[in-house]
Structure formats: C-alpha cells, structure tokens
Task: inverse folding
C-alpha cells in the first residue's frame, strides 16, 4: 500500500529529476572547478587573461612540464604540515559536537516539555547572544583570555565554540522535541516510568534524526569557523581554516594560494565519507514510521 | 638628500667595508622569553625564524594577518603574552597610545652596538622601535609597450594620463592602467599618496581636526578619477593581489605598485616571458608642481613590550637585534625586502623603493589619529569614484565621518 | 557557559554608552630611517591620569547611538531641511553610513531568507523522492555549497565571476554584452551577493527539512489519500503542517544569519557597492585605531533590529510554548 502511495506519475518524476539535475550542477560546479584547478598552477587557475587557461593549463605545462601538477598538495601537506591542523580540527570538532549535543539534548528536552516562562526567556537570551556579530564577541574575549592565560589553548576555543553554538542547537533540538508528541512520553509515565526512564526508553529511540542533524551543524560550525579560531589559537595548534587563511596571507605569496586550494579540496574528502555514513543513519528509517501519534 | 644618505648609509657602509662588520655578528645567546606578534609575509617570517634560533631563548611567534587585533590585548596583560611586536609606521601609534611598549634607550645603550642609528625610530626623543625594512609604492611599467610607441618613461601622473591615452588609441591595450584601488584601505592609501603629492596637509596645524576638503583634496580626487578612466571597470575590487594578476596577464602597461611586490611580478612564474622580462620599476610619480612625490615611505620594525620583566625584555632585545643583523642576509632573504640591515646589497627589484627615498618622498604620517582618517577615507571615497557624488561632497563626508570617530576616541572635543 | 554568554552582552551594552578619554596631544619630533618630522603624539602620562580617574571612559549616554556614524539624528533633520524632493532626501540618507548599511542588510535578509527556504524545501522533496542508492551522494552534493569553506569558496567564486572568469564570461555570452562586468555595477553586485546568499544557505534549510520529512506520519498521509486528497493537497495539509515548526526554526536562524551578512562582502570586495551592519562593525574594529565604542553601539543596534525582525516568529514561539 505505502509503496504504491509513493509511486509518482511520470510527469512529476521527470520534473523532480530535472530540478535535481539542475541543482546538482549548481551545487557541484564550483567544487568540481576547484578540484580541477587544484592540479594547475596559480597562473592558470587564477588567470586574468582568459578563463580557458584553467582548462587548457598552458602555464602549468610551461612551469611544471605536465598538464597536471601535485605541487599544491605537496606544498600543503608536506612542506606546510597541513596534517597537524587536520588533527587539531578533529579534536576541536569531536569535543564541540559531543559537549554541545549532550547539553542541548538534555536542555532541549527539558525546555520542550516545560511550561515555565523562564524556559522561554532562556531561549530569548540565547537568541540575543546569537544575534551578536561574532567579531564583537571575540574582540571582547581577547583581553580577559590573555590576562588569565587562557589564550591559545584548544580547550578555550572549544568552550567558546560550544557557547556560540549552544543557542542554535538548543533551539533546534527544542523544535525537534516539540515535534515528538507529548502523549508519547506522557503515556510512558502513566505506565509507571519516571521522567528519566521515559526519556531513556521513549524519546531516545526517536530523537536521532534531530540529534544527528543538529550534530551535523555543530560539526560544520566547529569545522568551518574562522572568526574564533583565527583569533584564539596559536600557530602550533591552529585548526584547518586559519591555516588555510595563512596560506592566503595578506599579500599572497606565489604558489601558496594553490596550497590553500589543495588544502580545501583535501579537507572536503573526509566530510564526504562522514556524510555518506550519517545519511544512512538518517535515511535507513531509524524513525520513519516510529512516530505514530 | 639627507634622508637618502641616512637610509643608504647603512647599506653603503656595509657594502664597502662589509667584512669588518661580520666580526662578532654571528652567534647569539640570551636567557629569557621571546614571543613575537606580527603580520605574515616572507620578510617577517625570516626575521622571526632567526630570532627564535637564538641560543637559550624560549622562542615563539604568532605571525598572522590579524596581528593588529591581537597585539594590543596580547600586550596589555601583566606579564604580557607577547614580548615583541612587529609594526609599521601606521600601526606603531596604536601601541604607543595604549602605552604597551617600552622605550628602548637603555637596551640600545647596553646591547645595541650592531644597530645603525638610522634604524632607530624615536618619538619625542625616546627610541620606541628598530626598523629593519622599507617599502613604498612606485611606478611599474612595461618597457616594450612604452618603447614601441616611443613614449618616454612618465615622471608625473599627468604624463601617465597622456601615455595611457596613446596606448589606448594605438589599440595596444584597452585599459593600460592599474593599481591597488580596491574600495577600503587600498583606495584610502591611494588618496593619501596623491594628496601628499599635491602638497596637502591632513590636519589643521597643531590639532586633530581633519582638513582634507580643500583644493588639494579635490585635485587629488580628480586625478584619481581621471586615472580610473583608463583602468579595468572592476578597479574598485582590485587589491594589490588582483592588480598583480592583471599585470601578469599582460593587460596593463603602467601602475603604481608596492616595492615589496616587485620581486613576484618580475620573476617568470605566473606570466609569459614577454611580460616578465619587460617589467621595470622606477621612481614614484609626481602630481602637480608641489615637488613632493605622490607616494609614502613605510618602514617595518620591532618593538619590545612594556609589561614584561627586564630580563625578558633584554633577551627579546638581544634576539631581535640578532634577527636584523647581517646574519639575516643570504641568497634567499636578500631580495625579500629592502632591508635596512648592514650588508644589504640592493637588488634590481629594490630600485623603486630606493629611488622613492632618493626623490625625497615623505613617510606615512606617524600620527595617532591618522588611522581614523584612513578609515574614514576608506569608507567614503568609493561613492565619488563611482560618480555618485562630487569630490567636495565626498571630502565633506570624510571629514564628518572622521570627526565623529575622533570625538569618540577623545582626540577631538566638540 | 552562561558567563561566556552573559558577559559579552553586558559589556557590549556598557561600552556603547561610553566614549574614550580625552587624549592629551602634544607636538613632538619623530625620527626614523627617512628623517625627522614634527608630528602630533599622545602624551601617555597625562592620558593615563585621565584613564585612572575614569577606567571605563567618558560616559556619554546615548550619544554614540545618535551621532553621524549611527542613527545620525541631526544629519537626518539637516537633510530634511535641505532636500527639495523625496528622491533627494533618499540620496542624502543613503549617504549616511549606518542607513546605507541597514538598507542593504534588510534587502538581503528579506530576499535571501524566503528564497533559501523555498529552494531548500524543494530540494528536500526532490531528494526524498529519489531512489535510496542515490540519496547519499545527493545529500553530499547538496551540502557542498554549505560546507565548502567560505574563505576559499568565495575566493574561487570571485575569480569565476570576474569579467574574464568562467561564470563572468558565461554571463557575457548569455546577455551578448561583451562589456558586462558584475564587479563594476552596483545592481549586479547586489544581485550576485544575493544569489550567493541563497546558494550558500539553501543547503541548511534542505537538511533540516529533509530530516523533518523522515518523520512525516505515513498513517496520516495514507488516511488523507483514502479521503481523496491529491498529491498537492497531501503536501499542503499533511507535510507542511508537520514541518511547520522546522520552518519557523529555519526562518529564525536564517533571518538572524542573513542579517549579519559579512563574509561575502569581504571576499567579493563589495565594499564599494554594498555594506552591511557587520561589515560596518568590521571596518570600525579593523582600522589602526579601533573604534570599540562605535562597534559596540552598532552591535546593540544589530541585536535590536534582529529582535524587531524576529518579533513575529517570537510571538509564534511564545504561543507554541503556551500551547505545548
């Protein structure tokens, strides 16, 4: 029955397909262009003479002898030790995601089941904080962090990123939990569970899409953050994005720009694996059909 | 003339009697902490690396494009995180205003034998910094293009306009001019150059009241607008990186460019031999008849933090002095900058900066409120360049924006 | 954690009510490698005394908010007096930095937010109807605009839209106008910034909606079908109400984020054509002398504007809250 219900008429299927193809092209083109360009030299990829140089790679042939060059990757990974930043990013991302999911799952559930006014105002304060431009925030943190010798540590950065991320994940999970009918855990409580058991046995099994999605965004925030990490980390424990920015520098040193391009491409590869992995969690029907009010 | 001898003094002395200067320049040992904050480009990286190599020092460096946001907070604590800051004539004033760097007179007396007097930056008689490199914007031109059309090397912006018209009319290039005209800091810097060239003064004498809405200001803006007619229509988005790319693509015959970029533009990487081999740099351009070149001289130097122990300050001073001693110079570092270091041999790429000094150019003003004016110029001039408002209106806006910022910062009282 | 959140809000509000001390200026002789000049300098000792007397600075009340850099009350009145038509008045207002920034910011927010939500929803529906094998790669590709680091992403895009870049050249070919340059024209720059905004933020809406679609109650859907609802009606009456809280949430976050639009302006060097409130703060904080108080005042105004913009959503959330 349900299979039949989801079968689409030909015309609609075609329309959706055309739209998807268009979107995939729009979304992927700049990435593929960068991927292709990362194997060229700067003079080709960033050419003011003609865009077609990036395709034909004239200067790449002149300067390196081949149509493709791995110089960007070699420079980034071997010469500039990009792997160190990858390691730091991994630590930061893991901690930020774990801490912020733990806090916001518990907090989000509590807020979604609370009728007290302060719960609402807590959300509003979190919102105000989020509305502040990050530059203002970080410049406010700098002085005390230097004074208390907290500056330049991964742990400080993790705490700040969690704080910046918390309002977002709290709101997001509160919305998700509110989407899970109250009857579900209330009926469990009628059956004799306490609040915690209800959460453990009823909510946890159905909360994963929300948690995973929130986790994905927390991850991306920590992964892509520049404003905080650039200002709060030292050279030794820099994460990937400030490292890439330092390849670009204020005055672009020749060749280093291609390090940045190569680094961005290599930084996207682990994300591909990660998303492939998590999409199975989302799609494989962990919840599809579980929430039957 | 005196200025030239002062700068070239350091280099000439060393080239002539080079060997003698080497007697005790090698080796460096100091006991204490060193942590450098500064911008990130090859010349500073070389200096920082050498300073950290000093024996017995706990060396660290944070070289980043965000150094201006980090240096004041990082030097305000006690003890300060950073013991040394690498600054330029524009950025030292913020450190002096906040009182986070120490006078170096005692340290220079005790450990500064290797420093030439022309490297010392003094404010009100007190030594506040030690300069180690110089920079300036000067004319860069394509010899082949000018020769083919029989054009003399321009010495003034008026000549540049004539030459640009000839190149365009001959159909050689559609937009023969370029420059770092990106809206923001770059555009403001071009105005500062041009305004100095017209002989204007930025402030009413003895006060912090801005004074740019005058005949010289209008003349400077109108020259910039006239030049922009011969630039790529996107010129308001071209910083020095983009202008350099235009140059390497062979689209441009003349531009006012930083001496520090010359080396990159004159090598054969990124462009055809036709462009690279015909790239020349020469003296800065004049504008009008004031006799002052339309450019500014810049130095980069290092300072020592105030809120650190005297031992750390001494160690920092010794290490930094060593880092800008002749030990710095080798085949790799020689053409990274115009070094104000004994033993520096001027390279062909340094010609522009040296001739800017020789031509009697003025340094970028080391005035506490110049930065505020620069920001006001950066925000308000694009409207004029796009033809949305008159030069007078744009300059009036600059003064109004500056005044409200200066009142807030306490430089001007209402 | 609460400290990290509450402290900056408090200190920014405080800062916005103060100005820096008067600086004691004297004329001194400065010397360097290029000779000596007589220049102004701050007398640090005398200034330090003033600082010690008032550690926070001069209290100026709302003056920071009312000066030319912000609400520009007296300049507005002056412009009103001098201008001879509404158009002229509009031009004079656009000449004031705060107003020109807020006009772009508002336009950007109101165009990009609904378009990104619509596009995100459409992609979510389309991906959800694709076969299961394809969904993984599709999700990844759809997320690319969002996860590619904005720093390099927009650097590459900036070169692509250059008059001689691949996209800029494509545009010239499409419009058969060889002189067309996105970077040289204010309207085109605005349009490009907004297209970039939609492209960059739609994936966020997509993922949230996609996750939401996984929990659509199939029983209700089937019941609706048995009742004779067509496909569109089922989307309209079953799917959309189900993900409505998510729409509210996405709208909330996106309005907030779009209102703080900043990175694209920097990476596209769009300063000549468009400025936003965040860009304005950045320029205050980025100069050689940092204008902390002015930046604080702009930040507070940003928060207030976000509050006003979000008030419908907040009222809705409040009602949800009471209903739940």
Result:
């Amino acid at each position: 029955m349900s299979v039949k219900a989801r079968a689409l008429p030909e015309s609609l299927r075609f329309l959706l397909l055309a739209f998807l193809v268009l979107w995939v092209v729009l979304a992927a083109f700049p990435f593929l262009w960068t991927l292709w360009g990362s194997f060229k030299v700067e003079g080709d990829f960033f050419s003011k003479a003609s865009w077609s140089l990036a395709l034909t790679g004239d200067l790449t042939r002149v300067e390196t002898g081949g149509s493709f060059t791995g110089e960007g990757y070699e420079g980034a990974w071997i010469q500039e030790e990009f792997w160190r930043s990858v390691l730091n990013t991994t630590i930061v991302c893991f901690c930020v995601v774990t801490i912020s999911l733990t806090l916001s799952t518990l907090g989000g559930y509590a807020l979604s089941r609370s009728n007290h006014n302060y719960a609402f105002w807590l959300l509003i304060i979190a919102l105000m904080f989020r509305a502040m431009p990050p530059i203002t925030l970080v410049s406010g943190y700098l002085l005390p962090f230097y004074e208390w010798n907290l500056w330049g540590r991964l742990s400080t950065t993790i705490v700040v990123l969690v704080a910046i991320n918390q309002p977002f994940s709290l709101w997001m999970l509160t919305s998700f939990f509110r989407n899970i009918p109250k009857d579900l855990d209330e009926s469990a409580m009628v059956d004799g569970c306490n609040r915690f058991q209800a959460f453990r046995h009823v909510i946890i099994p159905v909360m994963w899409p929300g948690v995973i999605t929130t986790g994905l965004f927390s991850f991306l925030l920590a992964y892509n953050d520049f404003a905080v990490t650039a200002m709060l980390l030292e050279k030794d424990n820099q994460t990937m994005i400030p490292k890439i920015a330092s390849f670009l520098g204020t005055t672009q040193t020749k060749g280093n720009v291609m390090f940045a391009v190569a680094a961005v491409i290599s930084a996207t590869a682990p994300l591909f694996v990660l998303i492939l992995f998590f999409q199975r969690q989302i799609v494989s029907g962990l919840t599809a059909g579980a929430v039957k009010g | 003339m005196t200025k030239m001898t002062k700068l070239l003094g350091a280099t000439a002395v060393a080239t002539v009697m080079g060997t003698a200067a080497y007697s005790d320049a090698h080796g460096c040992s100091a006991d204490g902490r060193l942590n450098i904050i500064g911008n990130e480009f090859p010349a500073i990286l070389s200096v920082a690396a050498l300073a950290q190599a000093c024996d017995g020092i706990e060396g660290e460096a944070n070289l980043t494009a965000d150094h201006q946001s980090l240096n004041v907070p990082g030097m305000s604590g006690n003890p300060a995180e950073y013991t040394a800051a690498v600054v330029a004539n524009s950025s030292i004033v913020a450190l002096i205003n906040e009182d986070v760097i120490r006078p170096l007179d005692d340290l220079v007396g005790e450990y500064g034998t290797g420093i030439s007097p022309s490297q010392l930056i003094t404010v009100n008689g007190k030594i506040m910094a030690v300069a180690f490199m110089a920079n300036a914007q000067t004319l860069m031109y394509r010899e082949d293009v000018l020769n083919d059309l029989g054009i003399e090397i321009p010495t003034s912006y008026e000549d540049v306009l004539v030459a640009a018209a000839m190149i365009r009319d001959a159909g050689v290039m559609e937009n023969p001019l370029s420059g770092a005209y990106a809206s923001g800091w770059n555009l403001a810097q071009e105005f500062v150059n041009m305004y100095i060239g017209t002989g204007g003064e930025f402030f009413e004498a003895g006060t912090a009241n801005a004074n740019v809405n005058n005949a010289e200001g209008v003349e400077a803006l109108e020259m910039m607008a006239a030049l922009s007619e011969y630039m790529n229509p996107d010129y308001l988005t071209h910083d020095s990186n983009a202008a350099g790319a235009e140059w390497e693509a062979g689209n441009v015959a003349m531009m006012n460019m930083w001496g520090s970029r010359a080396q990159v533009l004159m090598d054969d990487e990124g462009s055809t031999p036709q462009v690279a081999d015909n790239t020349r740099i020469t003296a800065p351009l004049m504008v009008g008849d004031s006799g002052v070149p339309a450019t500014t001289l810049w130095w980069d130097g290092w300072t020592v933090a105030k809120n650190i122990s005297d031992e750390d300050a001494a160690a920092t001073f010794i290490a930094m002095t060593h880092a800008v001693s002749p030990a710095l110079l080798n085949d790799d570092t020689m053409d990274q900058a115009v070094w104000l270091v004994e033993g520096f041999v001027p390279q062909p790429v340094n010609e522009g900066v040296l001739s800017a000094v020789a031509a009697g150019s003025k340094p970028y003003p080391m005035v506490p409120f110049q930065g505020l004016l620069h920001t006001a110029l950066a925000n308000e001039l694009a409207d004029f360049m796009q033809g949305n408002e008159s030069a007078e209106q744009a300059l009036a806006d600059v003064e109004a924006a500056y005044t409200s910022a200066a009142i807030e910062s306490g430089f001007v009282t209402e | 954690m609460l400290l990290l959140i509450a402290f900056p809000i408090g200190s920014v509000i405080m800062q916005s009510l103060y100005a820096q001390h008067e600086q004691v200026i004297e004329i001194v002789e400065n010397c360097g490698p290029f000779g000596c000049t007589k220049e102004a300098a701050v007398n640090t000792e005398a200034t330090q005394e003033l600082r010690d007397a008032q550690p926070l600075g001069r209290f100026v009340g709302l003056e920071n908010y009312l000066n030319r850099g912000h609400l520009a009350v007296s300049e507005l009145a002056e412009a009103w007096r001098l201008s001879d038509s509404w158009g002229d008045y509009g031009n004079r207002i656009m000449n004031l930095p705060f107003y020109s920034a807020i006009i772009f910011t508002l336009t950007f927010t109101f165009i990009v937010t609904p378009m990104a939500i619509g596009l995100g929803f459409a992609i979510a529906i389309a991906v959800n109807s694709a076969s299961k094998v394809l969904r993984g790669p599709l999700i990844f590709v759809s997320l690319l605009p969002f996860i590619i680091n904005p720093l390099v992403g927009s650097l590459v895009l900036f070169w692509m839209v250059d008059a001689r870049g691949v996209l800029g050249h494509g545009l010239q070919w499409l419009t058969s106008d060889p002189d067309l340059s996105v970077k040289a024209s204010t309207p085109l720059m605005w349009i490009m910034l907004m297209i970039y905004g939609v492209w960059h933020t739609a994936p966020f809406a997509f993922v949230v909606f996609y996750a939401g679609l996984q929990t659509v109650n199939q029983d209700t859907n089937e019941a609706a079908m048995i009742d004779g609802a067509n496909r569109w009606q089922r989307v309209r009456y079953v799917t959309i109400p189900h993900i409505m809280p998510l729409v509210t949430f996405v709208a909330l976050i996106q309005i907030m984020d779009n209102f703080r639009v900043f990175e694209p302006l920097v990476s596209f060097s769009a300063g000549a054509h468009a400025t936003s409130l965040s860009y304005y703060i950045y320029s205050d904080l980025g100069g050689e002398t940092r204008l902390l108080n002015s930046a604080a005042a702009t930040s507070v105004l940003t928060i207030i504007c976000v509050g006003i913009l979000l008030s419908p959503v907040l009222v809705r959330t409040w009602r949800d809250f009471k209903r739940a």
In short: The first strand of chain B starts at residue 29 and ends at 38.
